[in-house]
Design brief:
about 280 residues; two-stranded antiparallel ribbon
């Protein structure tokens, strides 16, 4: 536990000391909020309202897209935080850890917890934009989504750690992860509903773990009890797998299992890469 906490604390200190990284980490989410939330909200709301048979239903696109933006921040921060593993290898710090009595599993868990904590903090800071966007999420809704944000960040950081243990250069890591991350964002329902998609693309959506993370965040943040079934369907909050609607508990369980599997494979890969 001491080794895990030490690695966890080190990653947190590195993040808060790096002012450029702290500032730059919010550039992409705010840019997406301006483009999708501000520029495209009218168009998206008109399109969605046109597909609704119930003329009294309303669709707030900014309310729909904000949890997706937060999930996108968690994804990018968690995955790219693993790049510190490659930097530690180049600076020789990783060799010092490897010769210590800390196990490879502890190193992987410490890195995952550090990345998940940083990602969660960034997501919480984005909550400060809620009043300026004219949104009205309940306080309890925001509080109950925070633990899941940490779990989601841990799972995604495990994905980044797996790639960082295989790839030996920061340039290669950035290029590989960028190719992986962007489709995961756009095919997750984070920025627009992913219902009524082609069959082959629907398969990708259903096997994308980010899809379930985004869905959980939307269900926890948005009070669906006040929404009509038509609006819920338009927001894509009813994910079906093999003709059966997936519950929020099953989605959380899937993310937790996904995190555990990634810890396992990242540890194995980490052992081989640093043997």
């Amino acid at each position: 536990m001491e080794g895990i906490i030490a690695i966890w604390q080190r990653d947190l200190m590195k993040f808060f000391r790096d002012k450029a990284r702290l500032f730059g980490s919010f550039t992409m989410p705010i840019l997406f909020l301006l483009i999708f939330g501000g520029g495209m909200s009218g168009t998206m709301e008109t399109m969605m309202m046109g597909n609704m048979p119930d003329g009294t239903a309303s669709f707030n696109y900014v309310e729909f897209v904000f949890p997706g933006i937060v999930a996108m921040t968690l994804l990018m921060t968690s995955v790219f935080s693993a790049m510190s593993v490659i930097e530690d290898k180049d600076k020789g710090y990783m060799k010092e850890i490897l010769v210590s009595p800390i196990s490879r599993v502890s190193i992987a868990i410490g890195k995952m917890l550090g990345a998940a904590t940083v990602a969660t903090i960034q997501g919480i800071i984005l909550f400060l934009l809620i009043p300026f966007l004219g949104l009205s999420y309940g306080i309890m809704n925001l509080l109950q989504v925070i633990p899941f944000m940490f779990l989601f960040g841990a799972a995604l950081s495990g994905l980044g750690l797996l790639f960082a243990s295989i790839i030996r250069s920061t340039q290669g890591f950035q290029m590989t992860v960028q190719i992986l991350v962007m489709p995961m964002i756009f095919l997750s329902g984070a920025l627009f509903p992913v219902s009524n998609m082609p069959a082959w693309m629907d398969v990708i959506v259903k096997i994308n773990p980010v899809t379930y993370g985004v869905d959980v965040m939307k269900k926890l943040m948005i009070d669906t009890s006040e929404l009509s079934p038509v609006v819920i369907e338009a927001m894509g909050l009813n994910i079906e797998v093999f003709g059966r609607q997936v519950t929020i508990f099953e989605e959380i369980l899937f993310i937790a299992a996904f995190a555990a599997v990634l810890v396992f494979f990242a540890t194995i890969s980490f052992k081989r890469a640093n043997a």
